[in-house]
Amino acid sequence: MKFLYISYKSLTSSLKNEDNNLIKTLKSYLIMGGSRYIITDQNQTYFITCTIVGWIDLFTRPEYKNIIVDSLNHCIENKGLILNGWVLMTNHIHFIGRCKEPNKMSDFLRDFKKFTSKQLAVNIKDIPESRRDWLLDKFSFEARKTNRAENHKIWQDDNHPIELQEIDAFQKLHYIHDNPVKAGIVESPEQYIYSSAKDYAGIKGLVKIELI
User: Which positions fall inside the Transposase IS200-like domain (predicted)?
Assistant: First the structure.
């Protein structure tokens, strides 16, 4: 398991006073990134976690879940995404995958979050949703806290990317497939349709994956 940790203190401790502008730039970058984990190789295999702001349980309706499923399949067909495993829970998604050259993992994550955010916001407004006003208010509040978001901020900035070796991938695959079991949603991983557990049990799942 590999990750790169960037410390603001370690980056700036050796800089001289005249490098104040550089220090400010580094500080701004680290605050905006908000993560210890960085994608260093755009075409390596990563374990990724995308989480809804405030850990809000958004994915409680099939309409919202299917937006994620359709977007993943679109990226697999058109954006060079190779997915080895995934699971969608009520407030986050885990997946294992990589991007084929010349595509980049950072670009995929940016576009995936941007597109699904817009689609989710539209669906919250359009379908019968008892939490509509509460959800939109929460996501609007999060958007007002940053200049980088539009009307609604649905995903947290952090993707928590962890570069995987083959043995790590199998460990993480077991972990993500076991999520719905630990949450008490199903008794066995392959019973949960919003994951790749069915594929590894020999049953075609909702998203096209490449078995490890």
Answer: 41-179
Whether the pLDDT of residue 16 is over 80: the answer is no
CB neighbours (10 Å) of residue 205? 19
Q: List all residues 6 or more positions away from 159 whose beta carbon is below 8 Å from its beta carbon.
A: 35, 37, 39, 48, 49, 50, 109
With tokens 């078995």, the residue in question is: 211
Q: Which residues pair with 195 in a beta bridge?
A: 87
CB atoms within 10 A of CB 66: 15
Provide the 3-class DSSP secondary structure of residue 51: strand
Structural domains of the chain ordered from first start: 1-36 (no CATH), 39-200 (3.30.70.1290)
Q: What is the pLDDT of residues 126-167, one digit of tens each?
A: 999 999 999 999 999 999 988 765 789 999 999 999 999 877
